[in-house]
UniProtKB/TrEMBL annotation:
Residues spanning the membrane: 76-95, 107-125, 131-147, 174-193, 239-263, 275-292, 304-323
Keyword Transcription assigned: no
Keywords of the record: Membrane, Transmembrane, Transmembrane helix
One GO cellular component term: plasma membrane
MF terms in GO: calcium channel activity; calcium, potassium:sodium antiporter activity
Protein name: Sodium:calcium antiporter
Domain Sodium/calcium exchanger membrane region: 8-146, 174-317
PANTHER family in alphabetical order: INNER MEMBRANE PROTEIN YRBG, SODIUM/POTASSIUM/CALCIUM EXCHANGER
Organism of provenance: Marinicella pacifica
Keyword set includes Plastid: no
Location in or out of the cell: Membrane
UniProt record, GO biological process: intracellular calcium ion homeostasis
Main location: membrane
Membrane topology, from the record: Multi-pass membrane protein
Amino acid sequence: MHMLENLAAITGGLILLVWSAERFVSGAASIARHYGVSPMIIGMVIVGFGTSAPEMLVSVSASFEGNNGIALGNAYGSNIVNISVILGISALIFPIKVQSSVLKKEIPWLILVSLLSLMLLWDYSLSRLDAVVLLSVFVILMSWTIVQGMKYPQDSLAQNVDETAHKVMTFKTAIFWLMVGLLLLILSAQLLVWGAVNLAVYFGVSDLVVGLTIVAIGTSLPELASSVMAARQGAHEIALGNVLGSNLFNTLVVVGLSGIIHPFSVGREVINRDMMVMLALTLVLFVFAYGFKKPGRINRVEGVFLLLFYLTYTTWLLNPAVLRM
């Protein structure tokens, strides 16, 4: 019965988390449109922040409770899921063309940020100074993104956002859903963390493994929903923009806030296994998206490769746990 309670908490938390994130994003995007914010900024900053809100709330909640494995596993696990599963599925539905100059500049940034986080955690600890560095880099990157959005108002990503934009709510309705969405995000994140920690104890696995698998997949559901929807509508670059924005946010803000709240030691497996897999996937994405001699495109064969990559990684991750059970 105890396991059923944990599964119910995780399932309920995830459903509420995804629904409240969508309400939060819709409210924030509508408020931004009321104030005349450009589609590029809405797409890359507001929607990117909103789809990463579940990761942020779950990791912050886990940090407050001292569950560092879930905090870190959720951030890096979500990055792995975003590239391998979300882009893999999106590419299977509709090959992703990469024409946006802004996105092409953002991929090298993601590689540099991944290398920076690896360097900061190389001593197997996340200190408050490390966290401040990560958050400072995020502020610089967001400033750069806003400048790029103003510099390239007709960029193909901006057009994609315009074409797929939700109907704008009234200002009062937008404020209401922004506040309700945020409140429910906080509550559902706490419910999910509670269930995940108890499930880890029940099966005798580390909270890191639970964070890298169940929690990471669950908190990536908003990115999956919005990317698949964008791919079906032919708005290829929103699918990629969602993943890039979310991964930058997870690496810098989610990990940074966790370190500010509760500095902690980092397991060797995080450095030697999970961060290396995350970096490898980011480099693979760079090769796929740039195309070099031809226009960048993530095709269906590459989509299958990404999905098989995730299946292999998850099998590797769970194998010791399976042997212990």
